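Fold it.
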Amino acid sequence: MTRRRRTRPALLASLAASAALVTGCSSGSGSGDPLDGGRTGAGAQTDASASASDRPFEVEEVDAFDEPWAMTFLPGSGDLLVTERDGVLHLRDQESDERVEVTGVPEVVDAGQGGLGDVVAGPSYAEDGTVYLSWVEAGTAGTSGAVVGRARLVTDGQPRLDGLEVIWRQDPKVDGDGHFSHRIAVDPEGRHLFVSSGDRQLGAPAQDTTNTLGSIVRLDLDGDPAPGNPLADQGGRSAEIWSWGHRNPLGLEFAPDGTLWSSEMGPQGGDELNLVEAGGNYGWPEASNGSDYGGGDIPDHEDGDGFVAPVAWWDPSISPGSLMLYDGELFPDWRGDAFLGALSGEALVRVDLDGRRAGSIQAWDLGERIRAVEQAPDGSVWLLEDAGAGRLLRLTPTDG
């Protein structure tokens, strides 16, 4: 399948904070600047004060990749793994700035929103090199689905994945090539894997807990249902599920306080930042602060509707493709805050979090679709652009 490629810009566009926080719980008009629609129910706090010269960070371009999707910094060395959707895994040496392709990567279905997806270091990486990856594999009769695999990353000589095995499969495999989600997070105790599983653009399966579409699953490190899951007594796929009623949760991250958060693409408007709770039903497709494509109405989240409402949402959409919860030292004012990479919004979005509540929302226009955001070991913030020559960017505090 041929994808439309975006050209690499000559210069990074000027950055400006342009997000506004609006009082109330209504979904809004669905029109206007996509960066002007950040909303919570915590009260009005608008931050539109920062011009390009006032931004709190400098931007350094350090590399470029072909349609990158995810990155992770490896414990110990601090070296960087970067996935590309067509099935390439890069290992980048952070001291020499050299990178090499890792061999042993699985065959992937590189169509639509598919391909090679997330990569994270396992909790035992320092001892045995275990990493977890997600990708899309083919099924029968043209179907496909996301999977999670486990392997040992060997870095002596030619980097390679040894002993790669699939430990979890999205179920069922269906037609189409969208809403795989397949983001991976390891809990702070290092005992469980959490995997986001999109609704595959079908909607209704997100309310059916006998399958894993439209859910976030909680697994042990071998990919089996984790003991203590909310639907464990039902067996089957239900036993894997931690929460459901999700559409396309492309961000999944633990905060420094141990809470689990997700960023989720809504329909036309209604993108969400969610605090993920065990047994929570997040409403899709029965409730959303957005609208169906084509103008169809979806009931807004309301008190008492039986669904978990988002902590923050956006209408118009920003299309959040990733999520990071900051706990570094370089940006002390950012500690504990959520950062979303906006695809259609072409921005880095910051949500000021106070425990389980959202305060002000701020966005910096980057002029390119932001696919991934990660914190480096030194506390700098790294971004991947979503493009045929997607740049790898490093953000550090502005001097003075």
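The longest strand covers residues 144-154.
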